[in-house]
Amino acid sequence: MFQQPVSPSRRRYLRFDTPESVSVYWSCGGRDDTSRVRNLSLGGLFIETREPGLLGAKTKLDFLVQEGQIRAEAVVRHASPGRGLGLKFTAVTDKDRPHLAALLNRLSHSS
After folding, report:
1. Partners of 33 in beta bridges
2. CA-based torsion, 46, 83, 66, 72: positive or negative
3. Which domains are assigned to the chain?
């Protein structure tokens, strides 16, 4: 039997799909909004929004989750018109890092 080679993922971190209860308040380019988080990893997230995003734009994030306050900064790495934005984390506060780890742990166990 022949097996097809498994091609490695370009992603550095494993990402997890999130339930509808995971959302984030975000601010980018003078615009503030609240959006559902579609998926999340240690490296970033994808949020649902119809608003276009400029690649490279800086974004401030405040997660609205049961694990507690998680504040982060990110940049727009991918924009999918009408669907959402792919954001790459650039900073997570030391105080909030354990809460992000707890959220990822919860998501990994529910996948």
Report:
1. 26
2. positive
3. 16-110 (2.40.10.220)
State how far the alpha carbon of 24 is from the alpha carbons of 46, 54, 66, 75, 85, in Å. 10, 19, 12, 15, 12
pTM for this one? 0.85
Instruction: Calculate ∠ Cα 98-44-25, nearest 5°.
Output: 80
Structure tokens at 13: 């971190």
Q: Give CA–CA dist 8/89, Å, rounded.
A: 22
∠ at Cα 23 (79, 17), nearest 5°? 70
What single-letter amino acid sits at 67?
Answer: E
pLDDT in tens, 52-92: 788 999 999 999 999 999 999 999 999 988 899 999 999 99
